Amino acid sequence: MSDDPSRELLTAWRRGDADAGDRLLQLHFASLCRLFAARVPGRAADLIQATMLAVVESRERVPEGLPFRAYLLGIARRVLVGAYREQDREQRRAFALAQFEAHSRTSPSEAASRREQQRWLLAALRELPLDLQLPLELHYWEDLALPEVAAVLELPLGTVKSRLRRAKEALVETMHARPGELETITVDDLARWAAQLRWHLARSDAS
Questions:
Q1: DSSP string, 60-100
Q2: 170, exposed or middle or buried, with CB in 10 Å at 0-12, 13-18, 19+?
């Protein structure tokens, strides 16, 4: 029998023993807590879950001879780096949005109305499932044509078009649930909004 209980549990897990997988992940749960809680306390639970999901999906690819804990923490590090990049990206986007508003030539009341719409649209976008977020962002913010979006997502073009339509309809429905001018927003409004912001967001991401 191996001296490494993790390796024994991993072998059993690969053979279909789900309980062994649960015990294996639980064995190293404290390590993940230490890594994430000290750095991103508000998101630690989500990032731990993301790490564990990645391990579940890649358990067949743990290299022989590499301690499971090292493999697990390697994945956790990549998840953490991704979280930092996402946070930095959101901060730059918020700054770009502020710059966009500051240079707007509209009246104060119009600027306030536009700001409210943009903030709610951004918030509504983040509430969408990831498979609906990505086509929108790739098409409008990264300026990819739909066939290119399909290639990036490794999906049929028809599926991308369907998800893009569902995403825009979901955003419009969310905005219509808000009182005031947001009740009148249309799919075409979303397209114009995205086109206006894309250049500013691209500048902030590149800085």
A1: GGPPTTS-HHHHHHHHHHHHHHHHHHHHHHHHHHHHHHHHH
A2: middle
Q: Around Cβ 175, how many Cβ atoms within 10 Å?
A: 20
CA distance 53 to 6: 17
Distance (Å, rounded) from C-alpha 127 to C-alpha 73?
A: 29
CB 37 within 8 A of CB 2: no
Residue type, 151: A
The DSSP output letter for 185 is -
For residues 162 and 146, what is the distance between their CA atoms, to the nearest angstrom?
11
**Residue 180 host element (H or E):** none
> pTM to 2 decimals?
0.45
Tens digits of per-residue pLDDT, 13-48? Answer: 999 999 999 999 999 999 899 888 878 888 899 999
Q: For the segment 128-138, what is each residue's pLDDT rounded down to a tens digit?
A: 888 888 888 77
Give me the domains of the chain, ranges plus CATH numbers. Answer: 5-83 (1.10.1740.10), 104-206 (1.10.10.10)
Residue 87's CB is within 10 A of a number of other CB atoms, namely 12
